Amino acid sequence: MEFYKTLQDLDSSKDNVVFTCLTGKNKGAKLILSDGDKIYSESDDSVDWKKVAESMPVNKKSQTVLVDGEKIYIEFLRKSYSAVVCGAGHVSIAIIKMCNLMDLPVTVIDDRMIFTNNAKAAGADKVMYEPFEDALDKIEGDSGTFFIIVTRGHRYDQMCLEKIINKENAYIGMIGSRLRVGKVLDYLEEKGIPREKLDMVHTPIGLKIGAETPAEIAVSIMAEIIEIKNKKSGMSSFDKELEDAISDEKLKDIPKAVVTIVSRKGSSPRDVGTKMIVCKDGTMIGTIGGGCVEAELRQKAFNALDAQRCELVKVDMTGQEAEDDGMVCGGIIEVFIDPII
pTM, whole model, 2 decimals? Predict the structure, then answer.
């Protein structure tokens, strides 16, 4: 449990990497690096963690590698994400509701009280009722911040973008027609902001899906944000549902195992890093693809729990048996079953 407690206490704004031995005498041993600093390790005397850490891939994609003939799973944890919405009109209200569905914390800024009250009622985590410039001066931004500019006019758009453009961010999007947007970008370029930086702004905002209503525009914006976020492929995380299952006092006496996809060849329902928890009472929390795959892995997890040992399991979805069972993906995955002790 100490490992999972350390995971929960991680600073999610840092680069956090987990190394797990999948094979050999140290199967299940783990190391956590946070911004390169070792904050948790097991089996220090028998695992050359320095050599393991040197095997970290530069593409920061979670994957299984070989170190001295043994398989090591290197897992890059996602940074925390949040959204900052400039403007609290109809589009913003729809964005707030979608952020809530995605468990994405959202801050909304507007200088009109009635609109900020609407944003609060819609479920915004934080509402700032003050001039855009003043509010944005108080927001630093980081590599997980999505800035969404949907104000009531290009003057305010320009004001917000000028404040945001030099902040660290995961995304900057600005609403408006090409003509309106072009004028804003040209003005800011004249003020000395490099064009290459301005060209990184997603504008007109959102994916091109022919959106017309505020709700449709919000869908296009959030779809674009999801696309940007998920381009950081190969990164994984323990979502809140899994964290709660591990830490919940009511569940602490139920033996459970974390099941993680650690490699994939061909097509499979879920990507490397996807997790679920299998409890000894038969409960499964999360999903790694459903169907026969999960049914088989649940039994494997029960066996691992009975034996109190980690297991690396290969699931082949390419053969006739898989086809007969309705597995249409046609890939091979390796799954690590890790009892929580």
Answer: 0.67
